[in-house]
Amino acid sequence: MPSGAGPAAALPRPIEGWQPASFLERGVAVPFTTPQLAGARLRASERGGLELVVPNISGALGVYILPWEGVPALCSPTLHDRRLTERLAAVRRVSPAAVRQAARDVAAEGLAGREAAAAAAAARLRAEEQRRLANYEMLVLLVQQTEPQEPGRVPPEQEARAALEQRARAALTGLAPRFGRSTEALTIMLEELAALFGPIGIGRQAAAARLPLAMAGLAALADGLRVWQEQAGAGDGVDAARVEAAARAMLPLAAAALAEAQALLDNLPALLRDWAADPAAVTRRAGEADWLLDGWQRICLLWQHDDERISRAATLAEMVELVPVLPRAGVGDGAAPRLCRRSPRVEGWRSALAFQDLVARNEMLRTLAPDGPG
Amino acid sequence: MNRLGALRRDLLDAADGQVARVVAMVDRMTERGAADALIAPLRPRLAMLRPDRALSLTRLLFLPLDRLIVPAPAWRPGEPSIPRSVLVPLAAALRAALPAQALALDAMLDGHTTADATVLIAAGGLLWPAAAALLRSAPPPPRWHEATGLPVALHDPLVRPMAALLAEGMALHQLACSEDAAAAAALLRRVAASGPAVLAMAVALVMAILPDAGEVLRLAEELAGQGGAEGRAAVDRALDFLIEGTAKSSAEPLPLALLADQMRRATLLLDGLAAESATTQRPGRRARIVAARRRLDETCRAQFSDAAAQLAVAAPEAALRDLRRLDAVGRRLGDAGAYDRGLQALARRMAGEAQMAPVERLRSLEILLGPEAALAWG
């Protein structure tokens, strides 16, 4: 019999009051299309392999923590989610960027539908263009920060590409002896840093980078929720107020993390030196905003995508469930509120959306993501 | 068939987007005349589709009562519904009584649609209380009988309850947006004191918005009990009207997706009423519910079988999902075997189709039968 529900096998007991100690323990949001896996996060298991942290599907407080093999006790995952999990099992280190990449690749295969495949292909092209721009902006920054001021010299941002590359190469050649590395090695390192900092925003392209755009999206969400609360009658704005409060609490945290990451670009020679010494440490510092904002994109997209078959109240109830729990460490004495789950998920034949409609809606949300279905 | 008739037939088969465009075009006409007749057969579909409509004073005025409006020939005196023929005369009466306010509202609404929530709420906040105050005591508009086809004696019994509900216009509009059962219950409690006819309309309206709100239904029964014989009769009229409406809804020509949603809502309503009638010892109503449910079941199975048989092997995914929507409702109404057989027959056709790309076949089978079956069949 066709069904969206999985067999009633043994589920582990939900863990109530779960608050991870770190972002790694919280795991990374995965854009699963199976409705019961909405809000699920993937993390490395202490016993090896990967495990999922899945919100309690009853809508009550708590999460299930289970290996992928245990998911059939919860639901029957879509073919897309099975393929995505296979792909993620091969990822060396689970991070938001790694999940995005894997999700985009799997979407391109077509198991999330034609539109998602097309969006993935378009996102790949955009990512390539953004990488090229990030490289260029990195060269501009390097020249700006290392060349002596000389009157009459063409500013690097106005320089032709070939000439800019030449000047950057000269700058790296000047730095090479100090780092004990060759110019070629430094060139590669600069490209690696461009890839790492591209989503954070480099130079003149900063505002259009992925994370600043995600921040703007989050701010727009908070503002939209405020307007909704003003228009909704008494009692209808509770969920909106919860999500808005969480979004507003997140904004300064993410802004600070983003500003700190962008500040690393103010001294590129020092950043190159740090990268040469300990790339993992630089990755951690640069990636904090990405981890903080991880999981919010789906919430923003749910709000933006007005499905006439789902009332705003039901959408808000779903959004409340998805608000990422903040880990204890790294967010300043629990500055952001933790939310309680309240509403059961929008599912089942009673809802305006059948199971397959929810899958389709989830696939469609992924095509709307500005950086592709990842 | 004349040209208008042919156009009407074409429109019944048109895609949702085309329907929305035609309706928007008609909405922009200052004199609608025959164009109104053109879109008349689409009204059941429009009620389900709820496309953005151009905001006019008449549309805004009756927006909170929209779900009670029925075609004039289908209306019966005493029924908690509103015949469409009274809308224009009542709006004209309002315009004549409050010309300055009407002009100001025209200016506010000009160029806006029902999607413009801020304008709708601001203008509705002005219009609905003013209309409620006027219609509470205004005499029938001039030429009432000619314009509406209704005797003058029916004006007050029909329009006074409408006025009472328009006084709750903002709450009704918010309820339609939020579908919040607590807000619905609060509204019913407020209007119950306005009399049985108002209660009947309010119950019909609220249950049309929230067909599965058992607590609202229980409250309606409670309020009926408090209202004596008249209150009891009023709520019975409202619930019978809703039961009868489920039969009408399944007979309307609708695209599969809308039909499935219509039947889902009808099933929710009937199931809620059945549960309530079991506790309130109402065998007559229970029999009507069983009959209405049987009609829905038969319609659902027939529509499903037709649709499954007619689907092309390489049908768009949206068409397969529409079929599954109907399947989900149908299984609740009756024998699941018919749906299993229909889906499996379609899956067999797909599995044997060499022209389909493997990923397309997998996805189609997944939509029809679920992921495990797709892997087994694909």
Detailed description of the structure:
The complex is a heterodimer of chains A (374) and B (378). Chain A contains 13 helices and 4 strands. A 4-stranded antiparallel β-sheet of chain A has the order 1-2-3-4. Chain A is mainly alpha-helical and 374 residues long. Chain A has one domain. The two termini of chain A are 32 Å apart. In chain A, α8 runs antiparallel to α10, α8 (238-263) packs across α12 (312-322) and α9 packs across α10. By secondary structure, chain B is mainly alpha-helical. Among the domains of chain B are: 1-51, no CATH class; 279-378, no CATH class. Chain B has helices spanning 3-12, 16-28, 34-39, 43-49, 57-62, 87-97, 99-109, 117-135, 144-148, 155-166, 169-178, 181-192, 196-209, 214-226, 228-250, 256-279, 283-310, 317-333, 337-351, 358-369, 371-377, and strands at residues 69-70, 82-83. Chain B has a two-stranded parallel sheet with strand order 1-2. In chain B, α6 packs across α7 (99-109) and α17 packs antiparallel against α18. Chain B is globular, with a radius of gyration of 23 Å. The model of chain B has no long low-confidence stretch (mean pLDDT 87). The A-B interface holds A 1-4, 76-79, 82, 109-111, 113, 231-233, 235-236, 308-309, 311-314, 349-350, 352, 354-357, 360 and B 50, 117-118, 121, 170-171, 174-175, 177-180, 182-183, 212, 261, 264, 268, 317-318, 320-321, 324-325, 327-329, 331-332, 336, 340, 343, 357, 359-360, 362-363, 366-375.
* Overall domain count of chain A: 1
How would you describe the oligomerization state of the chains in this entry?
heterodimer
Structure class of chain B = mainly alpha
Shape of chain A: elongated
Overall residue-averaged pLDDT value of chain B: 87
Largest sheet of chain A: 4 strands, antiparallel
Question: Low-confidence parts of chain B, pLDDT < 50 over ≥5 residues?
Answer: none
Please provide the ordered H/E string of secondary-structure elements of chain A. HEEEEHHHHHHHHHHHH
- What is the string of helix and strand elements of chain B? HHHHHEEHHHHHHHHHHHHHHHH
* Strand proportion of chain B: under 5%
Q: How much helix is in the residues of chain B?
A: over 70%
| Mean pLDDT rating of chain A | 85
- The percent of residues in helical segments of chain A reads 40-55%
For the sheet with most strands of chain B, the description reads: 2 strands, parallel
